[in-house]
Amino acid sequence: MKKTGAEIVWEMLRREGVEVAFGIPGGAIMHTYHPRQDFGIHHVLMRHEQCAAHAADGYARVSGKVGVAIATSGPGATNLVTGIATAFMDSSPIVCITGQVPSSLIGTDAFQETDITGVTLPVTKHNYLVTDVADLAATIHEAFYIARSGRPGPVLIDLPKDVQIASTEFVVPDEEVNLPGYHPVGAGAPELVKQAAALINKAERPIILAGQGVLMSKAMQELRAFVEKAEIPVALTLLGKGGFPESHPLALGMMGMHGEAYVNQAIQESDLIMAFGMRFDDRVTGKLDLYTPGAQRIHVDADAAELGKIVAVDLPILGDLRQVLQQLIPLVEEKSHPAWIEKIQEWRSDSHRRDILNRPENGHLVAAHFINDIWEATEGQAIVVTDVGQHQMWAAQYYLNDVPYSVVTSGGLGTMGFGLPAAIGAQFGQPDREVWMIAGDGGFQMTMHDLATVVQEKLPIRIALANNNCLGMVRQWQEFFYEKRYESTILLNPDFVKLVEAYGIPAWRATTRSEARNAIAQARKVDGPSFVEFQIAKEGEDGNVYPMVPAGAALHDMIRRSHPASDEE
Amino acid sequence: MQSTLVVLVEDKPGVLNRVASLFRRRAYNIESLSVGHTQQPGVSRMTIVVDSTHTNVEMVVQNLYKLVSVIQVHNVTDTPAVMRDLALIKISADGGASRAEIMQIVETFRARVVDVGLKTLMVEVTGTDDKINGLVDVLRPYGIVEMVRTGRVAMARGTGASVGDSAGPEGS
User: Fold this and answer.
1) Do A34 and A102 have their domain in common?
2) What number is the ipTM of this complex?
3) pTM metric for this prediction
């Protein structure tokens, strides 16, 4: 049967299991939009293309499916770029479809023409410019396969207008994609796995560094079985949250620049680190020369280019983590490390005493309070989407999470403005779950126009705004390292409650702990979206993220909140 | 130090751009790059010479494999291989005496004269970088008007192919 390029797009999306796409139409893509309703795929009309890409990303991260974003040529396509780069850095599978000027006009600087395949080359896993409608179906099938397989990532398909209009005999592409240069990895080399088991069996102070690779390879059960058999404590990266339950006795918590001090201490003092699906980002290593000085290192990753990229490893194992763990579990001995676990507990109780949640309240509302209160109210079962900055770190520290695929945050690129649109995607990806979006006042204002999308789609997203009237993370650095010169970080903000109410969203403002608790309870009762602004402290011990590894310092060399013993002196 | 990579890629538009973009993005230095067809339709072959003093060549290889259009990569630096560069050199040669001298030099280097003008000679030479550099040094005093070099191409010695037809990344 003959189909137009536009019809093939929707037909193929349907065949790939797509139920929802996020986008904005325009001159060069409206032909593709035209037949959409005939194919039963829901379209979410965003208010900015960047948000379309973030929404597709948020959808992908909670659903395990590929997210889809659609934009027109030129500015529509370039607006996607930040969202694509965000997905690329966090290995999130999305497919972006962009309109392009007609083939005959490509290269002539036509109206709304941008070389988007050129622009996105360094931030996509792969991209395509389709020049013949006969190639379109197979290209879309290939794009979805590449996006979700191996180390996932964004793929872009650029569609000239004439290709959307042209007709061809529709042929269903072969299920199996055969690409001569693309081979996702499987099991690890048995010899290396055996050597890894030997290292693990003789380690006295082992630690696992679990990253997003655990979630990507669906290795949660295997990781738990491995951890419990060999009794090895687990530190998580920011994106690794959900890969191992934080309530588990062997779960330590988050590592890195704003990780818990005892976690970083344990990493530094270990004699064996096992990096599972993480990539030694500079935010988790501190100064490289001083990183894990006494430890042997095992690194398991699905991407060969990550092995040995940042730190030298004794045993690099290329493979799918789940399969490698299945190979490892029978080879490791049942063991316990009581002295090591006890040592970590000592460090942990010191951290616990410094935690602001365990200190007497001084009347200031701090982020730890309201995030803890959201956590309690939702019993730790919500999907938490964050923006980027201080609140992101607080959310990671205080919203402890046991449920896989429930934390959505821009880790690698650190994209402010990510939160709201990613929450829109997440709510579509898990329509029956409670979604809390936590943002700061700086990042929220970068994409808050998409409140209109939340309302139009009647999404019951709970928005928590941590308002400290500044670009908090930059201001914190200025406080610590730039003589408290708050250069260009102080914001004169609108009345957020009025603003949000103008969209028809019920809103509350909380300035004390009891108001915070009350507002959270009220917001959760609303049928539809709701919003709470939390006025939080701006400076000092109440307003900074602790602990913190300063730039250039070793991982254990942290700025910490004062110990209560020092208050008593 | 230099390393020589033989890279088989899909013969599709934009593939050279993907490879070049990778080198730029990761701050790898390319010393030379040459591309051409192979015996297999749909497959092109690149020979890339990398400055291995400042670049981790193993990382280059693994990152090349991340490009969907790259089929196979082989580092032939330490394998017995024939490596060749081709140069065309135009030299000023007015008088009879210098002309004869140049011809003699050309013969010694097993190069050949491919064009004779009233005031110039064009020499074609094939060989290793060292041999071509040697010839260029000797010819320079006569006055080089123009020179072009192709960049290195390489092929492993012996019966096997430098790169196979369908194997996946090494180490996987």
Assistant:
1) yes
2) 0.91
3) 0.95
